[in-house]
Amino acid sequence: MTATEAAEEQVQENVNGSPEKAPFSLELSQDQKDIREWVHGFAENVVRPAAHEWDEREEFPWPIVQEAAKIGLYGFEGTAQFFADETGLTLPIVNEELFWGDAGIGMAIMGTGLAVSAIFGQGTPEQIGEWIPRCYGTEDDVKIAAFCASEPDAGSDVSAVRTTAKYDEAGDEWVLNGQKAWATNGGIADVHVVIASVDRELGSRGHAAFVIPPGTSGCEQGAKVKKHGIRASHTADVHLDDCRVPGSCLLGGKEKLDERLARVREGKRSKSQAAMATFEASRPIVGAQALGIARAAYEYSLEYAKERSQFGKAIIENQAIAFTLADMKTEIDAARLLVWRASWMGRNGVPFENAEGSMSKVKAGEVATWATERAIQILGGNGYTREFPVERMHRDAKIYDIFEGTAEIQRMVISRAISGVHIR
Fold first, then answer.
1. Which of 27, 36, 311, 405 has its CA 20 to 30 A from that of 201?
2. Is it true that domain 3-144 has CATH number 1.10.540.10?
3. pTM: predicted TM-score of the whole model, two decimal places
4. What does the pLDDT look like over 247-286, one tens digit per residue?
C-alpha cells in the first residue's frame, strides 16, 4: 500500500469510524524503530548543527525545511504515512526526535501539521484530498500552512473570537473580517485555515473553520512576533479585511454547518467546536514535542555531569546531581507514557473520558520546563550562556506551558472530566 492509499483509507476511517482498534503496546514495530532512527539521524546531522544560527537569526529556516522535503520527512507522503499508523505512535515518535534536534526548527517543519489536522479532522474527503497536499507543495516547490485560531482578546477564551464569516448567497462566498494573533507560519503560509464566528450569539458553538486559498485578497500578515523561544519558527498576526473565499472552502460544508447550528439553537449539544476539535487531536503531539526538548536537555546534562570535575571528581558522583538526573529521567519516561496512551486513544477512537489528551500535554509541558531548568543548574554558569544549548532549550520549553491551552486550562479540562462539575 502506498502512502497515498494509506491516507485515503484513513480518510474513510475518519468518516466511518475505525472498524477495529489496534492493541495498545509499548513494543515498537520494526517500521516504527526504523522511522525513529531515520528522523533521529536527520535531527542529529542536519537540525542540531543549524539550531544556534537560526535561533539567533530569528528567521524561518527555509533551507532546512527544503532538506526535510527532499528526504520525504516534510510533505504529504510522509505525513500520510505517519497518520496512517494504526497504533497512533509514529507521529509522536517523529515529533519527539525532531524536537530533540531543536524546537524552533522542529516547529518550522511540523507547524504545517496543525492546519493539516484541522482539515483532516473537519473536512470532507474531497477537501482533504484537495487541500492537504497543497499545504506542503512538492519537493521542488515547498509550501507551508498556518492555523489561525487565537486573537488579541481570545486566547484561552475561544468563545471570545471576534473574527466573523458572513455568507454571501448570491456569489456562494464567505466574507471574513478580523485579526488573528500568534499564528505559526501566519502570513508566509501558502494556505491558511481560519476559525471564524458565523453566529456570535452562540459563542464557540457558532464557530466554523475556513480554508483561505493562496493569493486570496484581503488576507495579509500583520506584525511578526519576537519571541522568548522557538525563534526559528515564524509567528505573526494575520489580518482579514473583506477576505472572500468560495463556499467550498468551509470545512465540512454548509449543509453540515447549518445542521449543527440548528441543533445548538434548539438547545441540543453540539458534537464539536471548530477550534477545540483541532486542539484535542493535537495535544498529545504537542506533548511529544515537549518530550523531545526535555530529553535533549537531560542527555546533554548527563554527559556534562560525567565529564565536568569539581573538587577532584566528576560532579555526577555527587548525590545532588545524580538524584536530579534520576528524577529527570523518571519524569520524562512518565510523560512519554501519557503521550503514547493519549495518541493511541485518539487514533483508535477511544473517548478521552478523563481528559487523557490534556493530561499528556500538561505533564509533558511542565516536565520540559522543569527538566531544562535543572539542566541549566547542573551546568552552572555555563548553562546560563548561549555557548551551551541548554539555555536555548529552556527558552524553547516554556511555550509548552502556554500554547494550545495553558497548563491552567488543561487542569480545568481535566478537573471537569473527572468530577462532572463545571469548574471555572
1. 405
2. yes
3. 0.91
4. 999 999 999 999 999 999 888 776 555 555 556 668 999 9
